[in-house]
Amino acid sequence: MRLVMLGPPGAGKGTQGERLAKRFDIPQLSTGDMLRAAVKAETPVGRAAKEVMAAGGLVGDEIVIGCVDERLCESDARNGFILDGFPRTISQAESLDKLLENNALTAVIELLVDEELLLDRVEKRARDAIARGEIPRSDDNPETMRKRLQSYRESTSALSRFYGIQGRLVSINGTRDVDVVTADILGALS
Ligand code: AMP
Fold first, then answer.
1. Looking at the domain assignment, is residue 62 inside a domain?
2. In a domain, 170, yes or no
3. Beta partners for 53?
4. Which domain holds residue 84?
5. Which pLDDT belongs to residue 28?
6. Residue 84: which CATH number?
7. Most-buried pick from 26, 27, 79, 85 (CB within 10 A)?
8. CB of 45 shorter than 6 A to ligand 1
9. Angstrom distance (rounded) from CA 33 to CA 61
10. What is the pTM of this model?
11. What separation in Å is there between the alpha carbon of 179 and the centre of ligand 1?
12. CA distance to 38, 141, 162, per residue, from 157 (Å)
């Protein structure tokens, strides 16, 4: 099973991706997590990504594609994977197709959620992190969230059409209860 989770920030890609990863026993590969780890470890990738991420923009295609290429070569990804937050541009999607060669994506799960609800969800994610005694993500605030949504509209929403034409797009209503959304995705994949 080779899946891509597509959708704006706060749509539930991480939550649903984690559930699908457990269900199919394959790794969930989040470029956001990879980049946050690189920022924390102050690697060259992290240094290049830090400011762009804090401002809610998109990190350069070459950097992100390099991270994914490296990660897909690891042995645990051989039997499948769930990509969360990648691709985010047409150029990334084209590079992914090339990286996968003959092992094309099984499906692209697009989670549809209204923007107003997305803002509420991201604010809640920050509050929940604080309640757990953790530091919330630096980009989970209303101002950066607006920029992230703008990046999504400008660069990522075109991917629905890209994968629609390929016949791989599965659009799911992501506004409902988490379990209902998971059941819907599993139903569409079966
Ligand atoms: P996420 O955790 O997926 O919301 O990603 C957090 C931030 O990491 C994004 O707002 C971008 O700045 C950066 N990022 C993650 N994935 C990508 C990607 N595929 N292309 C460009 N930037 C990315």
1. no
2. yes
3. none
4. 2-26+79-189
5. 98
6. 3.40.50.300
7. 85
8. no
9. 16
10. 0.93
11. 25
12. 26, 21, 9
- Residues 19, 50, 88, 121: which is the catalytic one? 88
What token pair was written down for 18?
Answer: 């984690």
Q: How many CB atoms lie within 10 A of CB 78?
A: 11
3-state secondary structure the chain: CEEEEECCCCCCHHHHHHHHHHHHCCCEEEHHHHHHHHHHCCCHHHHHHHHHHHCCCCCCHHHHHHHHHHHHCCHHHCCCEEEECCCCCHHHHHHHHHHHCCCCCCEEEEEECCHHHHHHHHHHHHHHHHHCCCCCCCCCCHHHHHHHHHHHHHHHCHHHHHHHHHCCEEEEECCCCHHHHHHHHHHHHC
* Within-domain flag for 49: no
Which residue among the candidates 2, 13, 50, 71 is catalytic per the annotation? 13
Instruction: Write down the number of H helices and E strands in the chain.
Output: 9, 5
Q: How much distance in Å is there from the Cα of 58 to the middle of ligand 1?
A: 6
pLDDT in tens, 114-124: 988 999 988 99
Determine whether 50 is an active site residue: no
Amino acid at 144: T
**Tally of domains in the chain:** 1
Within a domain: 37: no
pLDDT digits (tens, 9 = 90+) for 4-13: 999 999 999 9
